Amino acid sequence: MSATVATFYNVLDAQLFRAFLESRNITCFLADEHLISVQPFYSSAIGGVKVNVHPAQYEQAVRLYEEFQAGVSEENHKLPDCPECGSGQVLLLPPKNNIYYNEFRCFDCDHEWDDRLLHNINPGHIE
């Protein structure tokens, strides 16, 4: 048994929302994803791609859907202060290939650093 949180008429939008939910530990699946990816014009006839979750996680998923629609995430707004000069004028650098951590640059002192020490990406090793 599952509950539908949201319906999208575009497969890509549904996949983005699914990834958004899964990044926040909500288990979900897409209904009618494959049919609409093969026949996109059927989307309005069958009601679009449905993002379904377990009923126990439905309320949390609805709150996350509202956040997804607004395009606002608390994680995206909390940038660290520069470790060199303490300035709050920090830029999150765009990710590079095969990098699983965030890189930052300070506007004031031009110092660059990453958050590997905050998020240990190798669980068997303590840095």
Strand content: 15-25%
CATH structural architecture of the largest domain:
2-Layer Sandwich
* Biggest sheet strand line-up: 1-3-2
CATH class of the largest domain: Alpha Beta
How many β-strands, per DSSP?
6
> Low-confidence parts lasting 5 or more residues at pLDDT below 50?
none
What structural category arises from helix and sheet content? alpha+beta
CATH topology of the largest domain: Alpha-Beta Plaits
CA(first)-CA(last) distance: 43 Å
Number of domains: 2
Short description:
With 127 residues, the protein is α+β, with helices and mostly antiparallel strands. The protein is 31% helix and 20% strand.
Annotate the secondary structure layout:
Blueprint lengths: L2 E6 L2 H12 L5 E4 L1 H6 L4 H4 L2 E5 L4 H13 L3 H4 L12 E3 L10 E4 L5 E3 L13
Antiparallel strand pairs: 1-3, 2-3, 4-5, 5-6
Polypeptide structure, described:
The protein has helices at 11-22, 33-38, 43-46, 58-70, 74-77, and strands at 3-8, 28-31, 49-53, 90-92, 103-106, 112-114. Strand 5 and strand 6 form a beta hairpin. The model has no long low-confidence stretch (mean pLDDT 84). By secondary structure, the protein is of the alpha+beta class. It is elongated, with a radius of gyration of 19 Å. The chain folds into two domains: 3-74, Alpha-Beta Plaits (2-Layer Sandwich), CATH 3.30.70; 79-127, no CATH class. The protein starts with a strand and ends in a 13-residue tail after the last strand. Helices cover 31% and strands 20% of the residues. It has a three-stranded antiparallel sheet. Strands 4-5-6 form a three-stranded antiparallel sheet, with no helix packed on it. It has five helices and six strands, in the order E-H-E-H-H-E-H-H-E-E-E.
